[in-house]
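Customer escalation, tier 2.

The customer says the design service returned an amino acid string that "doesn't look like it belongs to this structure." They asked us to rerun it and document both sides in this ticket. The original structure tokens are below, unchanged.
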């Protein structure tokens, strides 16, 4: 386990190419710069509820297996992230949720595989993009959120729901495959 609940990290957090054989918990943590987890494998639950990151959150190529998970969701509820959130090429074995999240920059999930749903609920984000051979085995749900731009290109998913959502600029769909 890597448990940083309520921790204050004045500099960044760098866990690149790590194997975490348990949970990653950052609930209530404050990170003064970037949080980097590129190419990390996590075999437990991931929770980053009410975390503040003053830089970017980089989860490029991460695999989150959540073996034996009880909550079956990757939880980023209430996060406040000043830089881009990057999940490009990630493999997520459960749903991922951003509820009441403040994402100042882009949420990028290019080429990401999600074995569940992607949920933005009562959140705001500059850009949400999912491009390049991505697959969501469940639904993309954006509910009660404010998003500047939503771009989906070359992605497969079950459904897209945009309830009570404000899109300020562009809604871009190209090669979007909706499957049962």
């Amino acid at each position: 386990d890597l448990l940083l609940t309520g921790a204050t990290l004045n500099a960044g957090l760098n866990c690149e190419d790590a194997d975490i054989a348990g949970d990653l918990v950052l609930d209530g943590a404050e990170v003064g710069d970037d949080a980097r987890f590129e190419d990390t494998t996590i075999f437990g639950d991931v929770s980053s509820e009410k975390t503040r990151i003053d830089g970017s959150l980089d989860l490029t190529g991460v695999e989150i297996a959540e073996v034996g998970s009880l909550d079956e969701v990757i939880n980023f509820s209430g996060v406040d992230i000043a830089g881009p959130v990057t999940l490009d090429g990630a493999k997520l074995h459960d749903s991922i949720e951003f509820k009441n999240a403040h994402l100042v920059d882009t949420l990028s999930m290019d080429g990401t595989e999600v074995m569940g749903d992607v949920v933005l609920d009562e959140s705001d984000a500059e850009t949400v993009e999912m491009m390049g051979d991505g697959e969501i085995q469940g639904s993309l749900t954006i509910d009660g959120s404010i998003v500047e731009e939503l771009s989906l290109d070359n992605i497969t998913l079950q459904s897209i729901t945009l309830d009570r959502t404000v899109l300020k600029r562009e809604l871009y769909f190209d090669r979007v495959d909706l499957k049962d």
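Tier 2 assessment: The sequence is consistent with the input. The chain has a mean pLDDT of 93. The two ends are 36 Å apart (CA to CA). Sent an explanation to the customer and offered a walkthrough call.
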